[in-house]
Structure formats: C-alpha cells, structure tokens
Amino acid sequence: MDKSINVLIVDDYRTMLRIIRNLLKQLEFENVEEATDGREALAKLRAGNFGLVISDWNMQPMTGLDLLKEVRADPRLKATPFIMVTAESKTENVIAAKQAGVSNYIVKPFNAETLREKIEKVLAHA
C-alpha cells in the first residue's frame, strides 16, 4: 500500500476532518488535504493529483454522492479510488453509491483498523 499518495478528505464538519486526518496519520499517510464541501473538493481534485478521496455523504451545497458522480463523469478523475463515509447504513444509500461508482463505503463510527482495511481494498484495485 503506497502511503505517499495524496489523499483528499471531504467533510463539512471540521471535527470529522480532524478525526479522519488523525486516523490517516496513525496509518502513516502524510499527504492529506481537506475540503469542506463537494464543490471545493472537485476544484482541488481537478487542480491536483490525488490517489484517494474519502468523502462524507451528507454535505451542503454538494453532497458526497453528487461529488462522486462528478468525479466518475470526469475522464481525468474517473479512476480515482473513492471511499464514502456516512452515518447512514440504509440499503438504498449503499445501492445508490454503488451505482454511482463508489470504491468502498464506511459507516460511522469507525476506527483506524476499519479505515486501513477499506483503503487497502480500494488501493489494491486501483
């Protein structure tokens, strides 16, 4: 697993950004950038070179699902591994995310071990 990749974490809740950043640091990921909504994330993705996106689902004005759809529709970004983080474990949400091309899905709360497993899975297929 390449821990030098650039990771973009997206959440409109600053505390959650800090939690995910700390978990990634425990997993020895150093190149972590943050965005507080889908629009900001999309601009950063288009301007940068990210090897992984970890995004919350519930955000305004652009949701994580909308961000995922934009990423998958962009020829330069469509292969970027994308992990959706949500408090919702509803089946229809999981199905919607899968149909939109999500790489993996994490339900809050989660720990470093769960995050590591999900990251390893999506990077193995990248």
Automatic annotation (TrEMBL):
The keyword Plastid does not apply. Keywords: Phosphoprotein. SMART domains: REC. PROSITE patterns: RESPONSE_REGULATORY. The modification 4-aspartylphosphate is found at D56. InterPro entries: Bact_response_regulator, CheY-like_superfamily, Sig_transdc_resp-reg_receiver. PANTHER family: RESPONSE REGULATORY DOMAIN-CONTAINING PROTEIN, STRESS RESPONSE REGULATOR PROTEIN 1. This is Chemotaxis response regulator CheY. It comes from Caldovatus aquaticus. The lineage of its organism: Bacteria, Pseudomonadati, Pseudomonadota, Alphaproteobacteria, Acetobacterales.
